[in-house]
Design a protein that fits this description.
mainly beta; Immunoglobulin-like; 2 domains; 1 helix; elongated; disordered C terminus
Length: 242
């Protein structure tokens, strides 16, 4: 038992040492339809014979592409329309996954196969997200100097929707947020709030939608000072989108 425990400790130490010399991204975020780039750099100079890229799915490792010292680059069958090399080198190598979909999500591994030390390994995980432009609706409330502002955004995973207003003497209250799961695995999140105060001048109301740490999408609408119209007995504000 003592011998087995020591062997495991040695294995963990060696694996950690081999992984430590690889510089790569821990996580890559990409929107549906965008390209995602993975890069790995071997920081120590080694005699590398081949760089291998693998996709890990349900603990199954599938070879995606290789760059060999003697035979050059090769993208494996099943990935030729999806993967291309951006930079090929035995110390620094990068690939691009084109037009990503949720099926591309998962973790990818780069292996620098060296002699005589073996393979140095790096690992990057791809998170695929979807985020559509928010839609803002502004309606006058039954009360004086109050407006009901509603903003909806659709994405995957469920987006966070935030309302803002440019005029300091206006403020939001009575927030309500509803999330609906769609059949295509996206979520539509709608945040509604009451905007109160004296609208002495035209003012801008903003709605920002975010998923994960990806760039947010924001829409600004302008509420005019006086312009109002009536549709079917209900007062609506005429506003412009910036």
């Amino acid at each position: 038992q003592t011998h087995t425990w020591c062997s495991c400790l040695t294995c963990l130490f060696v694996c950690a040492a081999l992984t430590a010399v690889i510089q790569t991204q821990q996580t890559v975020l990409a929107a549906v339809g965008e390209d995602a780039e993975f890069s790995c750099q071997l920081l120590d100079t080694k005699d590398v014979l081949q760089v291998t890229w693998q996709k890990i799915s349900r603990d199954v490792e599938t070879n995606v592409a290789t760059y060999n010292k003697y035979f050059g680059q090769r993208v494996n069958d099943g990935f030729t329309d999806k993967v291309k090399f951006k930079y090929t080198g035995l110390q620094n190598c990068s690939i691009v996954i084109r037009n990503v979909t949720e099926q591309d999500e998962g973790c990818y591994r780069c292996l620098f196969n060296t002699y005589p030390e073996g393979a140095f390994t790096g690992r990057t995980c791809l998170r695929v997200y979807e985020l559509h432009e928010p839609v803002v609706d502004v309606r006058e409330s039954n009360s004086t100097e109050e407006w009901v502002v509603s903003c909806s955004a659709t994405g995957r995973p469920a987006p966070t929707v935030t309302l803002s207003v440019s005029q300091q003497d206006l403020s939001f209250s009575q927030y309500n947020t509803v999330s609906v799961s769609n059949t295509n695995a996206t979520f539509t999140v709608t945040t509604t709030a009451v905007l109160s105060g004296s609208c002495k001048h035209s003012t801008q109301v903003g709605c920002a939608a975010r998923v994960l740490s990806a760039p947010h999408r924001e829409v600004m609408v302008t509420i005019p000072e006086v312009q109002k119209t009536s549709v079917g007995g209900e007062k609506l504000f005429l506003y412009t989108t910036d």
